[in-house]
Each structure stands twice: as C-alpha cells, then as structure tokens.
C-alpha cells in the first residue's frame, strides 16, 4: 500500500494531502498551483485538472440535481481559446465569479482549489487515466462533459488517501 505525502508545491498553510502527478502516473505538469501563482501558468492551449475540496454537502443544479458529499473532487477540462490555460485556470481557481459552467457550482463553494496543467494533454485522456485508478469514481454523470461523446463525466471524486500498488 502506498501512502501519499503532501504534494510539495501545495501552499504551506494548507493542511491537506494530495497525491503528486507522478503518484498518479502523470508526467510533471507545465503548471501546478493555486490562484496566487496563476501568472506562472502558460497562456497556451492545453488541458488541466482542478482539484476541489468541498467541506460540506454541496447541491448541484446541473446537469442533474443531486448532493455531493464532502471530500476531494477532480475536474478535467481544456483551454483552447484566448489566454489559454492561464485564463481558464484563473477563472476556475477564483472563488468569486458568475456561474457559467457546471464546475462553477463547485469552485464557488470549495474551501480549496488547486490546478495542474499540461500543454500536450487531452482532458478525456486525463479522466480516462484517473478513472482506471481504484480511488476515483464518477459521482454524477454528464458533469462538465456535455460536449463529449466518450466520457461518463469530467468530474471524479477521490475517495481515499492511499492506493494499492
């Protein structure tokens, strides 16, 4: 059994433990961070994962009315428009914003938001990789993937701090 230690680039004040990208079998991201260091994120196209911690039950209105239990969630997306990854992650990592996308329902309620970005990744490949791991599952179908034909959703819940190796 592998026990994850605190991911080294997490802000020191957070008393949380996340796996590192290498713990999960990913190449090192082009960006890791939170809203304060978003200026280091590339302004190029790519895909990303946003880690979201919900401290309380959280109601979703879309795509299906449901309640998400407290815990860590990870959302995959892509950024191909103006401003690239920096613009998209800046929005997702901010707490105060208008609610435009499914993920906004969570990021506005989250106590912690953290992002990883790759310029050479595909959001569906990121989700496919994570859902094959034992500690990830889809909490709600269709979340963030209304334009995707292959994924059940682009949101996963991370259910444990350990994995079997």
From TrEMBL:
UniProt key word rRNA-binding: no
Keywords: Endonuclease, Hydrolase, Nuclease
Top-level taxon of origin: Bacteria
UniProt KW Nuclease keyword: yes
GO molecular function, one term: endonuclease activity
Pfam families, sorted: DUF123
Name the UniProt record assigns to this protein: Uri superfamily endonuclease
Record organism: Cohaesibacter gelatinilyticus
